[in-house]
Amino acid sequence: MSIESLWSSRFQQHIQNIITYFARMINGLLYSFIFITCVGAYYYAQFLKASPSKGISLLLITAVLTLIITRCPIRTFMQKPDAVYLLALEEKLTSYFKKSLLYNYIIQLFPLVFTFLIMVPLAMQSLQLTVPFLCTIFIVLMILKGWNIYIHWIWRDSHEKNIWLITRIACNTLIIYMLFYIANIIVLGGLLLLLAFAFLLLYTKKQPTKRIPWEYIIEQEEKMNIRFYQFASIFTDVPQMNKQVNKRKWLTNWIEPILHKKQATFFYLHTLAFLRGNDYFGIYIRLSILGAFTLYFVPNIYVKGAIAYGVLYMISMQLRSLWKYFSGNIIVALYPISTDERMNQFLSLIFMLISIQLVVFSGVVLIATRQLLIGFIIVVIGMLWIKFIIIPKTKKRISSF
């Protein structure tokens, strides 16, 4: 297999994997996207109606675009065996990595376009910029993004990479700020010349070693895969994720009495798996914190309720895969407990975990609104939502596993 066909094969496998998971996630992902878009659009419109000052708008645009442009994760599709089998072909992998860089550049333009389009109304209203000039600015941002990806790749594993990261952040912030602040074509040309000078300086400076840092590249590839699988696990079961287990005795001690009573065996097992497994406990905590934080700052009470119940449903979707946690364990399969009883105990655990979050969310709403009646209504409707929507949906879903 040639180097060109190797990259094409890896790329096709990657795309096929993404399509497979997005097909599984489509329902939950679509609903979440519509919900987040509607809520975000509403509050963004309210923000624009408040007519933010030029200074605030400029700082917000600069900060957001700097973050998007500076962040340059690079996917190479490398695998662990490549460090052995491709070691002798290092000098021939130049075309492989060029294709990878081009792929990463194209992929990372999408969030840049999306973010820039969101910022356009703010820039036109507060900074009085025209559409043609904004288009010119975007071209500069595209060039700046390519420069960042290249610099990040060249100095990816060097001891100077942190220095270059700070340099990139400073350059990105300065260029973006000047683009939107002065809004002059002459300044625009000057910034382009400055960027060209930075490229020239890079080439005249001594470059880091050309040897391929296999461990670093493979580690970064695995991290990107884990991030994608963690995101996918919110909506569907992900068998590729390694089960990480922590003892967490400070959490598991309280369920020990259940074991000694010799009752609710699978309730105990699934609770133990939930508390010790990072796949479940970690995402449960993160979604809970995110939901509580959003509920506290969102002013509209109806939106608070929608967010609370939406997050509860997302948590239940994440916990469904816990049902299959012991599916490959022969000893657990020998337990003389019927499937219906096991399912009832599992659903009891789901009900308890979601109810705990409902109480937390209602407490946050109570603190934010200081109205006991609203907090009580959130709890009542939430219990109905859990009992008649979440639990039946969860039961139907795990029955099909």
TrEMBL record:
Organism, as annotated: Bacillus paramycoides
Pfam families per UniProt: EcsB
Record-level GO cellular component terms: membrane
Keywords: Membrane, Transmembrane, Transmembrane helix
Taxonomic superkingdom: Bacteria
Residues that span the membrane, as ranges: 21-44, 56-74, 102-123, 129-151, 163-180, 186-203, 283-302, 322-339, 346-367, 373-391
Name assigned to this protein: Permease
InterPro entries attached to this UniProt entry: EcsB_ABC
Cell membrane in keyword set: no
